[in-house]
Backbone:
């Protein structure tokens, strides 16, 4: 026996179910197949903002602009012979006026004295907040100047069995908003605005890449060998081949294979999966943008990135200045993404913002500083190489101060096995690679390299990473012989970049948590 959910016992659910049954018995179809609105609410408000359109008498006589609209009933008040309601669609709300004598309800027929005497009375008694209605009628403006649609004909498009959440009580709980996003979208117009901006940002990103002669490609989500990042994968199984598979943790490896194949400039926007922690900046499933350009290096990619951000900000807001929340103070600050952005090497950033000269510190001194900071897992500190110690010091003492846009360049080689050694002899001798990360508001917003295309060095670095995996490092990737074979067949000098789309949207919409920009963020099961 299947147990029905608790809400089936609620009085509201049972009352609405009873009304649904009564409607069907009367011959009213509560779930028609199709309806075609002529306008949306926002469109009407904009189009007729300064237009003289007539009185309610004109509208009831059919002498004004005919309009058909559909949406949820979110407000209803009866005023005797007339009633006023608000319908909400995906663009906003519009007021509806219904009249006892002239408004019609599709399918309404009075067959006995127990039924309401008019369509308006039927709507008052049988239609609930949240029901979806189609309204055909004529526009007018009330004496107070509010644009209103006289409802000549009303069609029930969907009878709801559960009430909407109360905006001030039911959806004050953020967890409920994230878990039941459909209620959040119905109740909070600001949530709809964020996701409209997300869609627009993706459209603009593709437009920018197209203008730069990049070709969009698609690569597999399921992979037999994962790589391209330091992350623990999700494991699954391909039953047809009885083979263990992984959800991709990065887009990098297959995209580089396409560069080897002769594709000059390519990009992909796709979902990636990392079996890691969840916080305001991380979700196990997220959207990643990666782009690769043959014959570019990391300097070219710096220009590509900062020009992209400037382009997005100007198109969205007409300015390069954005608002954000400082991780240091928790207060709103103004940031400016106008090019060029400030550039600092990782060592210089530690010196500038942490007043620490790492070249004058021993490994043990750095380990002690990290331990004393309380921001690093103490069990991992003893096994960190010098390069990883420097990277950890940067994260603790410099990263939170990078409020305005920064490119942080010249990272230790241990931070990535896929990046080209620095061309400067001194930096190469220090074990630095041509990598940069860009930061805004104390958070990384992109990662880019001059890509490694030396097959011998690439093998050496990937073998070392594979050995770390064999030693128990769950975030290290296995050796990918097929990728090495591709590199042996020749990859031109290449610049590559990865940008987390969700963090990009957070920045451009002034949202503080990644959950605010994901339609369905990961939530712990409520059962």
Residues:
């Amino acid at each position: 026996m299947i147990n029905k959910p608790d809400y089936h016992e609620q009085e509201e659910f049972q009352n609405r179910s009873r009304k649904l049954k009564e409607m069907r018995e009367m011959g009213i179809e509560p779930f028609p197949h199709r309806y075609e609105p002529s306008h949306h609410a926002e469109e009407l408000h904009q189009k007729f903002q300064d237009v003289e359109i007539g009185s309610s008498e004109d509208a009831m006589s059919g002498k004004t602009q005919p309009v058909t609209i559909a949406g949820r009933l979110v407000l209803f008040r009866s005023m005797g012979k007339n009633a006023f309601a608000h319908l909400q669609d995906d663009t906003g709300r519009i007021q509806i006026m219904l009249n006892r004598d002239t408004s019609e309800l599709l399918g309404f027929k009075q067959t006995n004295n127990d039924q309401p005497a008019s369509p308006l009375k039927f709507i008052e008694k049988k239609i609930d907040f949240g029901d979806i209605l189609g309204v055909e009628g004529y526009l007018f403006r009330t004496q107070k100047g509010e644009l209103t649609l006289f409802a000549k004909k009303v069609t029930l498009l969907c009878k709801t069995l559960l009430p909407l959440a109360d905006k001030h009580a039911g959806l004050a709980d953020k967890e409920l908003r994230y878990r039941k996003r459909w209620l959040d979208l119905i109740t909070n117009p600001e949530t709809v605005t964020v996701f409209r901006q997300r869609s627009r940002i993706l459209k603009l990103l593709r437009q920018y890449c197209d203008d730069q002669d990049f070709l969009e490609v698609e690569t597999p989500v399921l992979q037999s060998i994962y790589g391209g990042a330091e992350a623990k994968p999700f494991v699954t199984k391909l039953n047809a081949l009885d083979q263990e598979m992984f959800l991709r943790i990065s887009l990098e490896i297959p995209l580089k294979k396409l560069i080897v194949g002769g594709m000059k400039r390519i990009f992909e926007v796709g979902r990636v999966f990392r079996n890691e922690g969840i916080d305001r900046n991380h979700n196990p499933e997220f959207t990643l943008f990666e782009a690769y350009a043959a014959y570019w290096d990391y300097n070219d990619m710096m220009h590509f990135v900062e020009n992209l951000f400037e382009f997005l900000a100007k198109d969205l807001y007409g300015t390069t200045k954005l608002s954000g929340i400082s991780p240091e103070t928790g207060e709103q600050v103004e940031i400016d993404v106008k090019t060029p952005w400030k550039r600092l090497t990782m060592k210089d950033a530690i010196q500038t913002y942490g007043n620490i000269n790492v070249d004058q510190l021993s490994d043990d001194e750095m380990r002690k500083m990290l331990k004393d900071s309380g921001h690093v897992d103490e069990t991992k500190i003893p096994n960190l190489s010098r390069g990883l110690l420097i990277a950890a010091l940067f994260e603790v003492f410099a990263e939170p101060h990078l409020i305005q846009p920064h490119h942080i360049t010249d990272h230790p080689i241990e931070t990535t096995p896929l990046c080209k050694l620095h061309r400067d002899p001194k930096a190469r001798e220090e074990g630095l690679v041509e990598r940069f990360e860009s930061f805004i508001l104390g958070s990384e917003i992109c990662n880019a390299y001059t890509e490694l295309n030396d097959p011998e060095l690439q093998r050496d670095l990937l073998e070392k990473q594979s050995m770390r995996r064999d030693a128990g490092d769950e975030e290290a990737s296995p050796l990918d012989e097929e990728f090495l074979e591709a590199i042996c067949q020749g990859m031109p000098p290449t610049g590559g970049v990865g940008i987390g789309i969700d963090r990009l949207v957070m920045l451009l919409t002034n949202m503080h948590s990644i959950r605010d920009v994901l339609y369905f963020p990961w939530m712990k099961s409520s059962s």
